[in-house]
UniProtKB/TrEMBL annotation:
Family annotation (NCBIfam families): HAD-SF-IA-v3 (TIGR01509)
InterPro entries assigned: CbbY-like, HAD-like_sf, HAD-SF_hydro_IA, HAD_sf, PGP-like_dom2
GO-annotated molecular function: hydrolase activity
Organism of this sequence: Nocardioides aquiterrae
Protein name from the UniProt record: HAD family hydrolase
Keyword Oxidoreductase: no
Length: 236
């Protein structure tokens, strides 16, 4: 694909370790506050992650338990609103952190003038404060599930980033952690690097150009360094 012009990152499970000890805890706290006995353990939440979007995840859970579809959607919307508030507090308290190696990769991309963007199905209400707190003002374009109603594996979020940022798809790569994310990126005409986590290591990531065990994986580091404009190609 030649030298990189831009990299578009997913957030949940990709840039940050946010699922198991972030979102899952926030969902459980929302259940408890609402007087519900539902609790999602680590394994249960891993299975539920196949459903993109927190409100959809909640609605599917309640419907599976026998709630009428309308009631399930209403309850899911109300609980997700409170869950988002709890998640924001977890972020402010520093409970959600970057995955190892992410900071170094972002530094290398910045040093070479490679644009970095975000395409996520998460709500802007928590995505924006998380990016600001953990990474600062690094990302030029941020598209979230608040602006794009078609969630991954739909390519809508990536297509919107490409439109807003004016990136060349041929010189842009997406970074994802899950099968749904890889499908979304490839559907938008992008090459995708997959950096899986404990929840997604068994996902079908075969459509990615590289599948790596996180951002410190030597194969991932080498892949990016070979495609940076100057520094890693021995140029002045």
């Amino acid at each position: 694909m030649g030298l990189l012009e831009a990299v578009v990152f997913d957030v949940d499970g990709t840039l940050v370790d946010s699922e198991r000890d972030g979102h899952r805890l926030a969902f459980n706290a929302a259940f408890e506050e609402a007087g519900l006995t539902d609790r999602w353990d680590v394994a249960t939440y891993g299975r539920l992650l196949r459903i993109t979007g927190g409100t959809r995840r909640l609605a599917a859970w309640f419907e599976a338990k026998g709630a009428p579809a309308g009631h399930a959607r209403e309850l899911a919307t109300r609980l997700h609103r409170r869950k988002t508030e709890i998640m924001r507090q977890l972020i402010e308290d520093g409970h959600v952190r970057a995955r190892p190696g992410v900071g170094q990769l972002l530094d290398d991309l910045d040093a070479e003038g490679v644009q970095v963007h975000v395409a996520t199905t998460g709500a802007r209400a928590w995505v924006e404060p998380l990016l600001d707190r953990v990474f600062g003002p690094r990302f030029r374009t941020v598209v979230t599930g608040t602006e794009v109603t078609e969630l991954k594996p739909s390519p809508a979020a990536y297509l919107r980033v490409l439109e807003l940022a004016g990136c060349s798809p041929e010189r842009t790569v997406a970074v994802e952690d899950s099968a749904n994310g890889v499908r979304a990126a490839v559907g938008a005409g992008l090459r995708c690097v997959a950096a899986y986590n404990d929840y997604t290591r068994d996902d079908d990531l075969s459509s990615a150009v590289l599948v790596a065990d996180g951002f410190t994986d030597p194969a991932l580091v080498a892949w990016f360094h070979q495609r940076l404009p100057r520094r890693w190609r021995g140029r002045p």
